[in-house]
Amino acid sequence: MNRLPSINLDALKRPTVLISIGSVIVLALLWWFLWMSPQSSKLTSIHSQIATLNTELNSDKAQLLLVKSESKVVKQNYDKLLQFSQAVPTAPDQQILTTQIYDLAKSTGVQLTSFSDNSLIPPASNGLGEIPVAITIVGNHTQCLNFLDDLYSPKFRLLTISTFSPAPSSSASSSSGAPGTVSILAHDTLQYTFILAAIAYYYPGGTSLSATTTATAATTAATTKS
Q: Which fold would CATH assign to domain 94-202?
């Protein structure tokens, strides 16, 4: 009964057994330091990257919801945004304003005797810039009033009239017998001179919308990220 433990202990004391056990221990240590420890470090780095990516993903999801919400507003108000962009451009565009006034005079039948929009008043603090405008037209009262009416058309460049001086021509005054008493609401065939001082506007801080811009642009940008 006492020989079996002694035989087992004797077997463990053999060099080959001790070498085998030592080899296993050395291999285990090598496995830990050469493979397991570096892999553990890589795993920690991967977990950190995953956490960063999850944070970015949540941020992108929130941004996507915001863009989708804004795209709905753009769809609903695109016509008004386009109208504002045309009425208040991002640049002074004085040459375009000159062409618009000339075309308006031509379409309403008045004679554009003088026009000036050479000066600029830059915006004070991210607001509207101003362009002082001086206009003189000649025509009968219907033509002149049509010019004023179209000048305030929503499709036209935004202008506010600061002073307006209607005056009948000398022939109109003399024919009435009382200079300066001719009503601009009468005498369709008589000539009048309208002198206007107005302000046109531009908004450097805005975003220009062309007529070919589609209302789905924001939606496209939103769905591209999803």
A: Alpha-Beta Plaits (3.30.70)
